[in-house]
UniProtKB/TrEMBL annotation:
Cofactor notes: Binds 1 Fe(2+) ion per subunit.
EC number(s) from the headed UniProt entry: 2.3.1.234
Taxonomic source organism: Salinimicrobium tongyeongense
Function text: Required for the formation of a threonylcarbamoyl group on adenosine at position 37 (t(6)A37) in tRNAs that read codons beginning with adenine. Is involved in the transfer of the threonylcarbamoyl moiety of threonylcarbamoyl-AMP (TC-AMP) to the N6 group of A37, together with TsaE and TsaB. TsaD likely plays a direct catalytic role in this reaction.
NCBIfam families per the UniProt record, alphabetical: gcp_kae1, T6A_TsaD_YgjD
Catalyzed reaction equations: L-threonylcarbamoyladenylate + adenosine(37) in tRNA = N(6)-L-threonylcarbamoyladenosine(37) in tRNA + AMP + H(+)
Similarity comment text for this entry: Belongs to the KAE1 / TsaD family.
Names of the cofactor(s): Fe(2+)
Alphabetical keyword list: Acyltransferase, Cytoplasm, Iron, Metal-binding, Transferase, tRNA processing
Official protein name in the record: tRNA N6-adenosine threonylcarbamoyltransferase
Organism lineage: Bacteria, Pseudomonadati, Bacteroidota, Flavobacteriia, Flavobacteriales
One Pfam family matching this protein: TsaD
């Protein structure tokens, strides 16, 4: 089975070729235009997808050494995401499916982040059902009970900002360029995580809240700058380490609660923020500390990519769960 995956939900145009669960190519064109605006500009994202999509798909096929006539099906991200961005991938996938006479597979982007764990990779184990997925990305923060490939139940989620936003907005307060998440991670590695304690939000059950943290960081920094205008540059590593430590603490508290509530000790992390070195380390240590079995994705399958779309498509193909030509992009879509 050869699956072509297409991802265009936000600001990365991506395409991948998957053969029986193994990745043959995984191409991502990251859009640079948004950097100077400090965030993704939807209209510009849509235009950049239109420019990138043909060369990116060509590149994915050529790196895989697969011709389009060999493809078994084409999988694309239907949502959630930015409408103008999703439309580019959706329309292209439909045309390709029609032109080649092969099945079309619509994929939920958030399910795909989780299903990335089922890509065949040496030295990587696949989670066993049922498992809990902590999905942490630019737009979502969820704890998902995964009973089967497409049987997923959100048992906790953020009431306001996503954890990726918490990283990016904190970085912005510190004057770091967008997207700041990876930079906070880098600086944090050399800092003291206990230098500046930030309060954790009080939210019932398995839900999260990150908007209060952002506000307390802002007030703290403003106060410090009044006393010492060089506070940020003199303490950047400690500030980043402290922010990251607080975020990890919030995530771990809820995960522990979810394990207790469900009795499930198989835990997978997914989404762009699962690239974070502190989170990866903490999850790894949780195996010995709490007796969990944790699954940490290969780095290239954390932030947006089409390999995850292709593997989700692969399992839909096997169960013959095809889309028809009437399928439309959806900016908001449930698990
Ligand atoms: P969604 O998947 O919810 O639609 P998205 O696709 O925009 O959102 P992803 O690409 O999955 O999000 O993740 C991007 C987010 O991950 C950004 O907020 C980015 O800052 C964050 N991120 C990436 N690497 C790291 C890192 N090492 N540490 C912290 N955050 C990171
Ligand atoms: Fe994503």
């Amino acid at each position: 089975i050869y699956i072509l995956g297409i991802e265009s939900s936000c600001d990365d145009t991506a395409s991948a070729v998957l053969h029986n669960g193994k990745i043959l190519s995984n191409v991502v064109a990251t859009q640079e235009v948004h950097q100077k605006y400090g965030g993704v500009v939807p209209e510009l994202a849509s235009r950049a997808h239109q420019q990138n999509i043909v060369p990116v798909i060509h590149e994915a096929l050529s790196r895989a050494g697969v011709s389009k006539e060999e493809l078994s099906a084409v999988a694309f991200t239907r949502g959630p995401g930015l409408m103008g961005s999703l439309l580019v991938g959706t329309s292209f996938a439909k045309s390709l499916s029609l032109g080649l006479g092969i099945p079309l597979l619509d994929v939920n982007h958030m399910q795909a982040h989780i299903l990335a764990h089922f890509i065949d990779e040496e030295n990587y184990q696949k989670p066993n059902f049922p498992f809990l997925a902590l999905t942490i990305s630019g737009g979502h923060t969820q704890i998902v009970k995964v009973s089967d490939y497409f049987k997923m139940e959100v048992i906790g989620e953020t009431l306001d900002d996503a954890v990726g936003e918490a990283f990016d907005k904190s970085a912005k307060i510190l004057g770091l360029p967008y997207p700041g998440g990876p930079l906070v991670d880098k600086k944090a590695q050399a800092g003291n995580p206990k230098a500046f304690p930030f309060p954790k939000p009080k939210v019932d059950g398995l839900n999260f809240s990150f908007s209060g943290l952002k506000t307390s960081i802002l007030y703290f920094i403003q106060k410090q700058l009044k006393e010492n205008p060089k506070f940020i540059e003199e303490n950047l590593e400690d500030i980043c380490a402290s922010i990251q430590h607080t975020i990890i603490g919030i995530l771990m508290d809820k995960l522990k609660k979810a394990v207790k509530q469900t009795g499930i000790k198989e835990i997978a992390i997914a989404g762009g923020v699962s690239a974070n070195s502190g989170i990866r380390k903490t999850l790894h240590e949780a195996q010995a500390k709490y007796g969990w079995k944790t699954y940490i994705p290969k780095f290239e399958y954390t932030t947006d990519n089409a390999a995850m779309i292709a593997i989700a498509g692969h399992y839909k193909f096997i169960s013959e769960d095809f889309a028809n030509m009437g399928v439309t992009a959806k900016a908001r879509i449930k698990m």
